[in-house]
């Protein structure tokens, strides 16, 4: 009866080495497994915060729950990007997709649009030369 109801949790102690910089002495100390697991993956929290701050989706709103929605959406997109990047997937050119392009691809996938959306901005030099040649020949634009 005693072995059937064993409880497992992260309070199990494991050995961890500690560095004493003053005495230059290394000792093994008992450490909870929860702390070891946290230390092993704590870099992902820093990476999430760093990537989230690059292209943040914070929208001002008078409704408090809407800001929480944008925050959770932003975190879920960054987490999806980290998982996507850890799978070593590359684009057609062989380079990793940056976060901005990943968010754009997710948005375009959700609305079902093409990736070839014309961008606003300056006219390319080829298009500008075509326009100038049409104007010079007397054709209307």
UniProtKB/TrEMBL annotation:
Keyword Membrane assigned: yes
Instruction: List each copy of the PiggyBac transposable element-derived protein domain by range.
Output: 20-81
Upper classification of the source organism reads: Eukaryota, Metazoa, Ecdysozoa, Arthropoda, Hexapoda
Query: Do you know which InterPro entries this protein is assigned to?
Result: PGBD
Q: Which UniProt keywords apply?
A: Membrane, Transmembrane, Transmembrane helix
What highest taxon heads this organism's lineage?
Eukaryota
- The name under which this protein is listed is PiggyBac transposable element-derived protein domain-containing protein
Listed PANTHER family: DDE_TNP_1_7 DOMAIN-CONTAINING PROTEIN, PIGGYBAC TRANSPOSABLE ELEMENT-DERIVED PROTEIN 3-LIKE
User: Does the UniProt entry include the keyword Magnesium?
Assistant: no
Transmembrane spans: 64-84
């Amino acid at each position: 009866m005693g072995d059937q109801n064993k409880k497992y949790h992260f309070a199990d102690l494991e050995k961890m080495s500690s560095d004493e910089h003053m005495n230059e002495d290394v000792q093994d100390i008992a450490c909870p497994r929860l702390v070891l697991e946290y230390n092993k993956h704590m870099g992902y929290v820093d990476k999430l915060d760093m990537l989230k701050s690059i292209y943040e989706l914070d929208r001002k709103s008078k409704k408090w729950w809407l800001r929480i929605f944008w925050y959770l959406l932003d975190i879920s997109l960054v987490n999806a990007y980290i998982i996507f990047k850890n799978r070593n997937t590359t684009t057609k050119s062989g380079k990793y997709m940056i976060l901005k392009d990943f968010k754009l691809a997710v948005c375009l996938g959700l609305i079902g649009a093409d990736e070839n959306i014309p961008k606003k901005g300056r006219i390319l030099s080829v298009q500008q030369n075509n326009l100038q040649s049409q104007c010079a020949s007397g054709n209307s634009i």
